[in-house]
Design goal:
Order of helices and strands: EEEHEEEHEEEEH
Number of strands: 10
Shape: elongated
Distance between the termini: 18 Å
Number of helices: 3
Length: about 200
């Protein structure tokens, strides 16, 4: 998906006629292009005259931020191990953006990402004919801080970051525990994508 930083206006119909002496001069005020040509025109205008970026890859962070120190989120919930899954996905998502190196050591870091999982609620919202949950709703809350090092200038901070998502099974898992683990793994990936986009784009 592209985000284009300008508007393109195209209007006008008919033809305008102006009399010059004994002659009539006709000026077309609309232009007819083949259907396939419209796409080429829009792409040309967008890339040559407008600012554009791929949604999800833009960043408002200073260019000096290249190495991020991130170990793992703390776990302040009753769900054992959830912080490890979320932290693994956050580190992978940061690295996937191509611009950053993520390290568990503070040596050489330009910024530090810290925080804690403060809430994790997972409950079924739909069931199959056998009474097994086929759709879950998950809500995750976290305290997140992203600061420069040294100096500890706040780049992004949210003490009550909230994420909610639904997950529907496409196949049957072996047990209730397997289903919950599948939900947590999938939602952890989506949580990380949402959080990293917020960090980089300043939302």
């Amino acid at each position: 998906m592209f985000r284009i930083g300008c508007s393109i206006w195209w209007s006008g119909r008919g033809r305008r006629t102006k009399v010059k002496g004994d002659r009539e001069v006709t000026h077309p005020s609309s232009y007819h292009l083949r259907p396939g040509a419209w796409l080429a025109v829009l792409v040309l205008l967008a890339t040559s005259a407008c600012g554009y970026s791929l949604v999800g890859t833009a960043s408002t962070l200073p260019a000096s931020i290249k190495v991020i120190h991130f170990e793992a989120l703390a776990n302040q919930t009753q769900r054992v191990g959830v912080e490890q899954r979320l932290s693994r996905e956050i580190a992978a998502e940061l690295a996937s953006r191509g611009r950053f190196s993520v390290r568990s050591s503070p040596a050489g870091a330009d910024a530090e990402l810290t925080g804690a999982v403060t809430g994790f609620v997972l409950y079924p919202v739909a069931f199959d004919q056998a009474g097994r949950a086929r759709q879950y709703q998950v809500r995750i809350t976290a305290r997140i801080s992203f600061k420069t090092v040294p100096g500890e200038k706040v780049l992004w901070e949210n003490p009550t970051y909230a994420f909610q998502d639904d997950y529907t099974f496409s196949t049957s898992a072996a047990s209730y525990v397997d289903r919950e683990n599948e939900v947590i793994d999938r939602v952890s990936e989506r949580f990380a994508q949402s959080l990293v986009s917020s960090l980089l784009e300043g939302f």
